[in-house]
Every structure is written in C-alpha cells, then in structure tokens.
Amino acid sequence: MFVRLVRFHAHGGPEVLQVEEAPTPEPGAGQVLLRAEAIGVNFADTKIRAGADGIFARPLPGSPTGDVVGSVVAMGPDVSGFAVGDRVAALVAEGAYADFVAVDAAWAVPVPAGLDAASATALPMLAPVALRVLRMGRLAAGETVLVQSAAGGIGHLAVQLAKLLGAKAVGVVGSATKADFVRSLGADDVVTTEGEWPTGVDVVVDAVGGQTLLRGLDSLAPFGRAVMYGAASGEIPTVPGRSLFGLKSLAGFGVMPWRQARPEQARAEVAELTQLIVEGKLRVAKHAEFPLPEAAKAHQVLEDRTNLGRVLLVP
Questions:
Q1: How far apart are the C-alpha atoms of 132 and 154, rounded to whole Å?
Q2: Are 228 and 303 part of one and the same domain?
Q3: Residues 188 and 225 grouped into a single domain
Q4: Cellular component terms, GO, for this chain's entry (predicted)?
Q5: What is the CATH number of the domain that holds 297?
C-alpha cells in the first residue's frame, strides 16, 4: 500500500515541496503507526527546506519534521500502554507530512477525548518548550519576562504560561495585528521588533538569535537570565563576555536533550500542560490549516511571519 508523503529533492522556496507516493511505514520495535489527523507545521522546517547552514543543515532528499496527531492503526513489538484506535500526538523527526507516520511510543502523548486537533499538536513539543524555557529561566511570580516572537507557535503559549506563573509578560512582535493578538492572550505590554524594548527585565526567552538575542541580553536587569531555544534568524551570535558581566546569565535549551536528561520530569510537564489545555487555562490558537498537498502554502505563511499561533496540515 502506498501513501502520500511530502518531500524535497532540492533546497529552495516553498515550491520545492512535492507530494510523492511512498510505502506505508512499518512500525518498528517500540513504535506505533498513526493515521494522521493533523500535522503541526514548525518554522524551523522552512529553514531546513531552504538549505540554511548550521543547526538547520540536513542532507537531501529531505522530508519535514512536525507535530502529528492521529489514531493508532498498528503497533510494533515491545509497545505497552497503547491500543489500536487510541488518539495520540507525537513529534516526528522526519517524514511528518504524510498520511501515516511511525512514532516512538515512549514519547507519544495520549490525547484527551474531545480535544481539538490544533491543541493536541501542541502537546509533544510546543507547549513543553514554552513551559520549560520559562522554568529554565527560573521565572518567579512578580518578575518580568520578555518573550521574543510572542505571536508564534511557542511564543503565544509562553505569554500565557508566564501569566499563569504569576509573572508580567512583555511580548515582542513584528506588526500591529500581532500586537493585538498577543494582548488578547493577557500580555501586560507589547513592543515591536524595531521599537524600544524595556530594560530591567528578569528573564528573556529567545528563539531568534542573532542581534535579537544580544538586544535581549542588554534588556536584562542584574541577575537577569536569558534562555535561547532556537535561531530563526539563522545566526547563533558570538556573545561578548561584557554582555554577561552585569550579573547576567545565558542558557540554551533543546527539547531532545531535555527528554534525555530528565525523562520523568519531561513527561510530568507534558501531563501538567495537557491538564491546563483541557481546563481552558492555556489556549492554543489555530491560525490556518491547509490540505496536505498544499504544504507549500503553509510554509509561505510561516516565512511571511503572518501567523498568529499554529499552522496545520490536514491529510
């Protein structure tokens, strides 16, 4: 049996994404096979597809990553805790834009009954990253956090989680529309990427890198903490030591090393976030959804930086 799979055989614009026929994946040991219901599209894959260097470099041909929600249709050996028909969400490292995907059962997240697809796609990666970068920054009640890319998939969740932690959230955005969106999430203040940023903040969470990270460091108060969890700009800057001499610190975060280093805590935080979403305390915004063959349109939305929250593909 053949299924649809989106791949690219050359680096370039969104148009290089092609729908192909591929054999249905076979779940290996410790894996379950999902029939995809929805696929969360992430900005990093636009960089990978375009052929960016550094952390985005991947060999050709390639197939994007993604946060897949679907129903279990088959299980490989050594799988426990799941049954055929269960609805789960999982982060897929390659081949995510497809009708069927094989995922590791160890990190597949059970999806509560009745939860919408957009919210479910945030469970494996977006929401855990948003919470963990705030906690890695040791954000405390009454403190102020500067959230870069505050209207994006992770950023719009970080704003809400900061408020739930009792902190003041200041979002950085690129347009008036995004500013209104971030305010609707409860942000205490919103600033633009080109405007003046506050000084004396306690925590900065940054997935942009480059000069944006350096500006964020300048915004920190003494004993302030910055957490970098991505490099959407394509640049991981060399940080001058003088930027940290003012009693400031900088840490880096990656979801896969976090899972490996603290697996029990990582799973506990996923369960915590699932409950927050089910209770309506954390809202996952869906900006748009596209049919699987229109993956190029989804990438274009992300590259245009117009999305307010999550962009989905639907098989």
A1: 11
A2: no
A3: yes
A4: cytosol
A5: 3.90.180.10
Interatomic CA distance for residues 167 and 159, integer angstroms: 9
* Contact predicate 206/229, CB 8 Å: yes
Quick one: average pLDDT of 20-44?
97
**Domain residue limits at 168:** 126-256
174-196 b/e with 16+ CB inside 10 Å = b? eeeebbebbbebebeebbebeee
The answer to whether the CB of 96 falls within 8 A of the CB of 68 is yes
Say whether pTM exceeds 0.70: yes
CA distance 192 to 196: 7
- The band of 243, judged by pLDDT with boundaries at 50, 70 and 90, is confident
pLDDT at residue 121 is higher than 90 = yes
What are the CA-CA distances from residue 175 to residues 71, 146, 151, 273, 305 (Å)? 38, 17, 10, 29, 9
304 in the same domain as 242: no
How is residue 308 annotated by DSSP?
-
Supply φ then ψ for residue 296, to 5 degrees: -60, -35
Kindly tell me the number of DSSP H helices and DSSP E strands found in the chain.
Answer: 9, 15
